[in-house]
Amino acid sequence: SRAVLRGSTSCLRAANRNFSSSSQRGHRVAVLGAAGGIGQPMSLLLKQSSSVSQLALYDIVGTPGVAADLSHIETQSTVQGYQGDEELDECLKDCDVVAIPAGVPRKPGMTRDDLFNTNASIVRNLVQACARSCPEAMICIITNPVNSTVPIASEVLEKAGCYDPRRVFGVSTLDVVRANKFVADAKGLDVSTVTVPVVGGHSGVTILPLLSQTTPSVSFTTEELDALTDRIQNAGTEVVNAKAGAGSATLSMAYAGARFVLSLLKAMSGSPDVVECTFVKSDVTDAPYFATPWRLGKNGLEQNLGLGSLSDYEKSKLEGEVLPALNKDIHKGSDFV
Ligand code: NAI
């Protein structure tokens, strides 16, 4: 445990040193899996942001082309492509934020958990590289099953002696994006004014939209609650089926991933009141990782805004459906490492 303690202290020093240098030079952001269906459009959206000064793109195939293409866009940031294991550490060096959409997506008939066997080791290996090359970076995990890959990432960092739970995020933003859109459409509201917190996990019944806490305040019949909750929980499958074997959500996920990363960069630069729902280490329920709305800050997670006051409908889903399934997914991830 002394070794772990020494490791943590040196990680912390590195974090402090790198924070002051990063605020002078802008933010270096890596996308791991950058040539994929999510990676490419997400990198495009990040390239358009002035919060990013360096975009470091990594994949096992195709990154030179994606990087060359994006580097011609007339925004300030530089773009570099890195390909293959031997270039991974160089890609991650000095990164402030790492977004990970590497891994296989679902095909019709598959659950997110069916991806575990392939994606668990991809995430483990990539996060091990983060621990070596940018132990202080914010790590945003997009790769499914998020309910298990976030525990995997956390255990890897813990083993490497540089786990800071404030800096590891499961990106569940797409659930919020979908909830906002579906509720706005159902109720004829301007979607830019609608916010629906989505808590729990990021898979099937573990996704729990808190429709009772929608702002602006709206009321739903029980039929509407059932229909909207079911649609939000299964929206990913709607896309998987529509793509008929060609993958899962990529464009809406790229939007959601960029939204989360840019919110984080904004908070890291000192903007107050940046709030996002995210699946992280949590003590709000008996599940060790759980998504709730969080205030983000310079060091990542700053304040857990918690569950708020739940309706009876939401309470019964939380206890009866969310927690049992979520705990199972989480333990599968932790046990893997
Ligand atoms: P894709 O197959 O189009 O792209 C994945 C990319 O990862 C490919 O370019 C591939 O070469 C790369 N890759 C594979 N192994 C790698 C490794 N060891 N290191 C670096 N790159 C590697 O898949 P897509 O559609 O982009 O999905 C990626 C992941 O995101 C999937 O696991 C999917 O389930 C997940 N996803 C997550 C969502 C969320 O809400 N968090 C929503 C939608 C998808």
From TrEMBL:
Question: Domain Lactate/malate dehydrogenase C-terminal: where?
Answer: 173-336
Q: What reaction gets catalysed by this protein?
A: (S)-malate + NAD(+) = oxaloacetate + NADH + H(+)
CDD domains found in the cross-reference section:
MDH_glyoxysomal_mitochondrial
Q: Which InterPro entries match?
A: L-lactate/malate_DH, Lactate/malate_DH_C, Lactate/malate_DH_N, Lactate_DH/Glyco_Ohase_4_C, Malate_DH_type1, NAD(P)-bd_dom_sf
Any idea which GO molecular function terms this record carries? Answer: L-malate dehydrogenase (NAD+) activity
UniProt keywords (A-Z) are:
NAD, Oxidoreductase, Tricarboxylic acid cycle
| Catalytic residue list | 202
A cellular component term, taken from the record's GO annotations: mitochondrion
Q: Which Gene3D superfamilies match?
A: Lactate dehydrogenase/glycoside hydrolase, family 4, C-terminal, NAD(P)-binding Rossmann-like Domain
User: What residue stretches are annotated with the Lactate/malate dehydrogenase N-terminal domain?
Assistant: 28-170
Q: Which residues bind NAD(+)?
A: 33-39, 59, 119, 142-144, 253
- Give the E.C. number(s): 1.1.1.37
Specify which residues bind substrate according to the UniProt entry for this protein.
106, 112, 144, 178
Entry-linked Pfam families: Ldh_1_C, Ldh_1_N
Keyword NADP assigned to the entry: answer is no
Q: Indicate the family of this protein.
A: Belongs to the LDH/MDH superfamily. MDH type 1 family.
Entries under NCBIfam families matching the protein: MDH_euk_gproteo
Q: How does it assemble?
A: Homodimer.
The name of this protein is: Malate dehydrogenase, mitochondrial
Which species is this UniProt entry from? Geodia barretti
